[in-house]
Amino acid sequence: MYARQSIEPPLTHEEKKEEFMIMLKEIEPVKGAGGWEMEPRFTESQVLVAVASGQGRLLIGNRSCLLRQDRVYAVPPGETYGASADPAEGLGLFLLRFDVYRPDPASGEVLRVEPGDSLLLGRGEIPFSSAAGSAALCQTIHSLWQSADRLERFRAQMLFQELLYTTMKASGRTEEDSLSALERARDYMKTHYQHNLSIEQLTRLADISPKYFVDLFKKLMKRSFC
After folding, report:
1. Half-sphere exposure for 191 (CA within 13 Å, toward CB)
2. What's the CATH number of domain 13-171, 2.60.120.280, 2.10.109.10, 3.40.630.30, 3.10.350.10?
3. HEC string of 46-83?
4. pLDDT tens across 7-51, in order?
């Protein structure tokens, strides 16, 4: 007689995330005066870009976006990215390169996830809601990363995990969820049109920040909020 084998259902995307192990490989501060440009770079690792100071634009592949200090930006492996500073202000960035690993049950080894196999963060802009702020957290990570003390470098890895957790949690809000939040706010505006509604009231209803609300309104409704 043959032993009965149970067939396990395939893992969902969320279950696959739980198998991953993530390691910071490098954190690099870059900056330049007004008009400075960072030459396009090809990355084999995943990259998080955080704004340390100033203003400018980020180019990922052939897509350009405005850099903001309340956002972080995900660059997937196998992609080219660059940046340019605002002519009047200059720009400072933190570039955090990291790799994703997954245990192989068959061999017991820990293998690096190949580009395209898993994109934990997708690409582009992600709101960053931590009270500490991405720039301050990145500055602490960078300072610890430069230490010759292994324990301090381990702490840098721990803080990077916190940064990544906050980023991944924020990226879980899908555009459909955001649209639903905006629709609740829009319905409220229709039924209370006789009142002078503030952005603060509407953003509390939508459960998103005022700045994110205005940006999202313009992106999804194709017009400015006024």
Report:
1. 6
2. 2.60.120.280
3. EEEEEEEEECEEEEECCEEEEECCCEEEEECCCEEEEE
4. 334 444 444 445 678 899 999 999 999 889 999 999 988 999 999
